């Protein structure tokens, strides 16, 4: 891969993603597969004025050994060293960059029950710190190729060729070959316009229908707003949380969803693939679910806590999106969620409530935003998906037709 193209991608992640302000710290979480590229990102962050870039290397499969060899008690403990790190983030508010190349099968064979139990046990300690940074600082997720991931996406290619092809796909999805910053500014503005239109409709219910059996109605919060592409912190710093992104999303009203929805792509969840699955909702809650493959993981996911069985996000992405047009299945939510419409189970977004920066956590919850330790996107978009908006004034507006925008 040409260095000049990688440099453009590194600049994009630093500027549009993290957007560090002069003197701000940055925490950079990254895999070990692309150290040279990580170096470029670090340099760009410093050039933008970062005070200190804290680098945290990680390798996902290490988690397998932790789960296997630690006692459940140890695995469930947040050590003082780890808690100090959480406190540091809540106090200092560094920007955060996640630069991953997760192996879709990286946690195959792990003891799911033990791993989930430890996550549930640690969550109450982690939650206050997580709440403290929510909405107050920039964060961004982007990806770089890893060997196992590349082989999963391009199974018939040699390793080096597969890596090269995954780089190409990532750079194309991130619009790197145009003037990336200008391309992203235009793209952000386009998604913002769609969000404004959708918010202006004052939707009460979204009705989803597809020939694969999906037939679901989802209620909206009274003071909802659609969001997408660019976010703004409490202090007014703009950033792109996901590179790439194609979605306009909203958090639905907790407790108002009825019907059935079928997934249209496999879900890579905690290092394993859940395939051919569906959820049936009653009063906003999943009351029945099934997966043909890795059903155990699916059932675990929706019972992680009380909110895990409720929706946190409805996202609109046209089926003819650039990522879907590649025809690739990335086995990675960052990409696959931008290929077509999706929902997420679990935690909802405060920024989908009007005036959220002035509202307390309790007020956000009272508005109807679901709380949970999980937020898991799953794809439901199909070539014939129809979405009709039932608006507060009684109007019905077709917003999606044949899998794409109807306006
Ligand atoms: Zn989403």
Number of helices in the DSSP assignment: 13
The proportion of strand residues reads 25-35%
Q: Any ligands, ions or cofactors bound here, and which?
A: zinc ion
Oligomer: single chain
Question: Would you give an account of this structure?
Answer:
The protein is of the alpha+beta class and 407 residues long. It has two domains: 3-173, Thermophilic metalloprotease (M29) (Thermophilic metalloprotease-like), CATH 3.40.1830; 180-405, no CATH class. Helices cover 35% and strands 26% of the residues. The chain contains 13 helices and 19 strands. Strands 5, 6, 10, 11, 12, 13, 17, 18 and 19 form a nine-stranded antiparallel β-sheet that branches. The protein is globular, with a radius of gyration of 20 Å. Bound molecules: zinc ion. Zinc ion is lined by residues 247, 249, 313, 315, 337, 342, 344, 377.
